[in-house]
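Board notes (copied after class):
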Amino acid sequence: MRWFHKLPLRFRSVFRRGSVEEELNAELRFHLERMIEAKVATGMPAEEARYAALRELGGVEQIKEECRDMRRTNLLEDFIQDARYGLRALAKSPGFTAVAVLTLALGIGANTAVFTLLDAILLRLLPVHKAEGLYQVRRVSAIVPERLSGDFTNPLWENLRSRQDAFSGMAAWGNTDFNLARGGAAQRAEGIWVSGDYFGTLGIPPAIGRLIAPADDFRGCPAIAVLSYSFWQDRYAGAASVIGTTISLDSHPFEVIGVAEPGFYGMDVGMKFDVAAPNCATALLDGPTKSRLDDRASWWLSVVGRVKPGLSPQQLNARLAAVAPAVSAASLPEDWDAETKKSFLKTSLDAAPAGSGTAFDLREHFRQPLTVLMAVVGFVLLIACANIAALMLARAAAQSREIAVRLALGATRMRLIRQLLTHSVMLSIAGAAAGVLLAHWGTILLVRCISTHNESLFSFLRPT
C-alpha cells in the first residue's frame, strides 16, 4: 500500500509543479554548497572547489530528470503538455478546427439520433420487472394465417384469462383519451383502461399511494385512477396530497389512489399514458345499455401475459392453440352471420415476445425505413471520417518541417506519436460533444417528422 501513501505527493508533483521544482532546486543547491564547503575546508580555492563539486555531483539537469522519473508522473505531465499543445494548435487554425468539428458532429449526431429512435422502437426493453418474460397474445386468422391481430373484446379476454394455463399472470388494457375539464374548453389527457392485474403482472411499484389491483376489478367497481409519474409532476408538481383527491374524466369524478413509478409510460411503444383507470369503470362512461364490457364485437383491448417458468415459446403457443376453440366459442357474437361465425370459431391464438413493447403495427411500419436510414447515416459517418483523415494527413504534411526539427532536438518517435494522437483525440471529443447536442435536436425533429395525426409518437428522449 506504499503507492497509496505516495499518491498525494504525485498529485502535488503534477498540479503544483512550480513549487515542487523550486524545492528540488533548493535541495540540489544545499547539497552542492555542502560539498563546496567541505572542499574549501581542505584548503582548496573556492572556484576550484565549486568546479570539483559539480564534477563529483554530476550533471544537475540530469539529476533533475532522474528525480522527475522517480515521481512516475511523466506520462501524466506529458499528456497535460500535449493537451495544452493541442488546444493551442486548434485555436491557431480555427478554419480547420471548425470544418473538422462540424463534419464529425454531423456524422456522429445523425447516427446517434437515428439509433436513438431505432433503439426506442425496435430494441429497448420496457422498464418493467423481467421484461423478457412478457408475451403478447394475438389472434391468428383461419383464412390468412399471416394476418395477426392483437385486438380483443372484453368477453374474449375474460374467457381467455379463466381458461389458460400457460401464464403466471395476465393483463389487458385499452388506449383512450380523457377530457379533464369540469366544464368549458376541453383538456385532453392520454389514458388507458387496465385490468386489475395490469400493474401486478408487469411488476410496476407505486411511487406513492397504491396501484390498481385485482380487488378493484369487478362489475360495479368504484371510479378510481392512477396517474403516471410525469403527469403527476407536470399537473400536480409532485405533491403527495394528490392521493385521495378526485380528477374529472369525461365529466365523471375518479378518486386518485396512487402514482406509477417514474419511467413507466405503458406497454405501447411510442405512446404514453397520463391516467389509468380500471376496465370495469368503463360502464360509468358508456352507460348501462352500451357497456363495452359485455359487447362481443367491441375490439378495444390488448393482452399480455407473463409466461410460466420453464415453458418454451413452442409449448406456450401449443397451449394457447389448444384453448382457442373454447375461448372463441364462449365469446362468439350472436348477431354475426353464419359465415363470419364459422371463421371466428376457427381463429387460433399465439404469443409473441413483448419485452420491448406491443406496438406491432408501429414496428412493422417503421422497421424498414429506420433500418435503411441507419445504413445511410452510417455510410455518411464513414465519409465524414474519410474526409477528416484526409484533412489530418494534409495538416501532417504541412507540419513535416516542425516534426523534423523536434526529431533533431531529441524527441522520440513514440513521444511525437503520443502528441499527435492527443491532438486527434481532442478534436474527436469536440466533434462528439457537438454531435451529442445535434443528436438531441435531431431526435426531436425526427419524432415530429414521422408523427402523424393518427400515429403520434411520444418523444423517445426518456429514461431507459
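Comment from the instructor: Residues 50 and 307 are 89 Å apart (CA to CA). The mean pLDDT is 83.
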